[in-house]
């Protein structure tokens, strides 16, 4: 079990996405807003090492932001 504790996994939570020209991105400064193709109620995609592993939703409790996993993605070989 100690060997498993040493393994690092990169977790990414995707809130949404958008397409924009690179020149718009380069002109953005502090406080810029990027509109995404999702709403606050849409499910989040959760990736482990760039592989989709779960779907979740945002939870806010006493000012703490967290992600609840609502569905695990099972990959069949």
UniProtKB/TrEMBL annotation:
Protein's cellular compartments: Cell membrane
Annotated Flagellar motor switch protein FliN-like C-terminal domain residues: 3-73
Main location class: membrane
Membrane topology per record: Peripheral membrane protein
Keyword Oxidoreductase: no
InterPro entries: FliN-like_C, FliN/MopA/SpaO, FliN_T3SS_HrcQb, SpoA-like_sf
PANTHER family: FLAGELLAR MOTOR SWITCH PROTEIN FLIN, PTHR43484
Protein's UniProt name: Flagellar motor switch protein FliN
Organism for this UniProt entry: Maritalea porphyrae
